[in-house]
Amino acid sequence: MSEDFIVVVDMLTKAGFLETRASLYMDIMVSFLASLPFLIGLSIIFAMKRYHKLHKFTQVLFFILTSSILAFFAYIVHYQEGFDTLLKSSNIDPTHALLFLIVHIVIAISTITLWMFTLLYAIEDKKRRALPGVYSDSHRRAGRRVFLGILFTSLTAVGVYWMLFVA
Questions:
Q1: Domain map of the chain by residue range?
Q2: Distance between CA 107 and CA 126 in Å, rounded?
Q3: Between 68 and 22, whose confidence is greater?
Q4: How far, in Å, CA of 161 to CA of 60, rounded?
Q5: Whole-angstrom distance, CA of residue 6 vs CA of residue 75
Q6: How far apart are CA 7 and CA 78, in angstroms?
Q7: What pLDDT, in 10s, does the model give residues 103-154?
Q8: Is the terminal CB of the chain with fewer CB neighbours within 10 Å at N or C?
Q9: Whole-angstrom Cα distance, residue 159 to residue 113?
Q10: Distance separating alpha carbons of residues 100 and 82, to the nearest angstrom
Q11: 105 contacts 153 by C-beta, under 8 angstroms
């Protein structure tokens, strides 16, 4: 491995900027997840202002970033640092923490799945010239469901972060 890569990894494993027990990369991930509803809201405004290409670009970008960050978040919490190990330094009851984590996982997976299908259907509908147009109302309803899922995913991710690194 190159020395530059090792320096970056060392930097990311240092204490984070939120002044908790979390590392820098955990702080970056939770900051992104906490700001995600606002970023998605901005993307929705692009669609409302009829900037459809920009809306599509931001939705795909945020989907890829969110999927990657949630996967990395899960990897760190479950495998690298260990959920049980992280909970030892927390005041939260392990049973409640585990139940909350399961709720977060179910919401996150459901949201990512729904978001993926909404994106895929939108791309196909755009090719058929039915979006914007014939399927705009159904796309708008699916978008509302995805937004709610993103909101709950963000809130539960912040909750998991709080349980593991603050409480």
A1: 33-165
A2: 28
A3: 68
A4: 25
A5: 20
A6: 24
A7: 999 999 999 999 999 999 888 877 777 667 666 778 889 999 999 999 999 9
A8: N
A9: 21
A10: 16
A11: no
Number of residues that this document lists for the chain? 167
Q: What does the pLDDT read at residue 10? A: 55
At CB < 8 A and 24+ separation, what contacts does 92-95 make?
A: 92/163, 92/167
